[in-house]
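Ticket opened by: R.M.
Priority: normal
Category: complex prediction / small molecule

The reporter submitted a protein together with pyridoxal-5'-phosphate and asked that the result be attached to this ticket for the collaborator who will pick it up next week. Submitted input follows.
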Amino acid sequence: MKRPMRGIDTRLIHAGEPDPLIEGAVSMPIFQSSTFAYRGEGDYHALRYIRLNNTPNHDALHRKLAVVESAESALVLASGMAAITTTLMALMGAGDRMIAQDCLYGGTHDLMRHEFPRIGLGVDFVDACDPASWPQALTPHTRVFYVETISNPLMRVADLRAAVAFAHAHGLIAIVDNTFASPINFRPAEHGFDLSIHSGTKYLGGHSDIVAGAVIGRADLIARINRTAAHLGGSLDPHACFLLHRGLKTLGVRVRHQNQAALTIARFLAGSGRLAKVNYPGLETHPERARAGELFDGFGGMLSFELPGGVAAADAFIAHLTLPVSAPSLGGVESLVTRPATTSHSGMPREERERAGIGDGLIRLSVGLESVEDLLEDLGAALAAC
Ligand code: PLP
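Result attached by the on-call engineer:
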């Protein structure tokens, strides 16, 4: 009998699960086997081998992630960066170019800036909130248009509808890094994106205990990326598959809590009158608040802000916090706080950071699942002490 699966929470739990259950196991067992008995497969890529990302643990995750984002297909990889590099190297060759948002996760930005030129891939950076500026970046060799749903660490919301329209009008593949929004708040395929990329290390896993990545979208493109993945070798270990699979089942309850808590905290910080700036797409003062409200089911669990006293004040504030751990990364059950200039964006030269609006004193907060009253008390005490 067909099971009702309209709701995303039902899909997170039941989609892609083995049917019938393996030995009746309610939780997907871990297949810790690097190779599987030969069944006469005629093609190298059809062999069942751990690096080919096709053990039962991979297959179950691929089915689940595709259904969760209303997409045709999905592929898990060894990290978010493995998902990004494998995808772009599968879709572009020497001499090709891509258009990318100018303010991206530092690792992605560094990859495009420093590694890609060495292998003949060109990147033209644009302001993703200003579609009028995009045509100047187009060349006959442009293949891809690349944005983030909510930019890291400034929480800008690119003109996502215009990005899809522009890409398709010019024969480009539209890709969005959907890590910050998660499928709970935004499902790229429903808005026409060809591919969505995730660092599964963050919200999808949700417990700060794995490194994982995923690319989700058009079946023809995922098949191409999968072939390249087999050669680049960034496959996800079955034990990490298991943890990602387990984390996914609670994604909805976690992210909805984080949406609510982050909005409460952003309003509290903005209302304190003690901060130079608070960046959160759910605040009325955010430049893309209207767009975020139309496109997203929630504004996310990430915010950033600046104290008037710059780096010294930021470091003192972080040192006073007792609940959020000072660490890079995000999307886990515990709140994490960091100064991006020293962690996620430290690879970006200071002038470039400043041009992008990332001040050295900027603080980024990933709101966890602690009681929001306790977080407000902790943040308020740290503000009072600075
Ligand atoms: N994309 C975004 C938006 C990120 O914030 C990160 C890491 O912080 C990545 C991709 C890279 O993910 P990973 O660390 O899993 O390779």
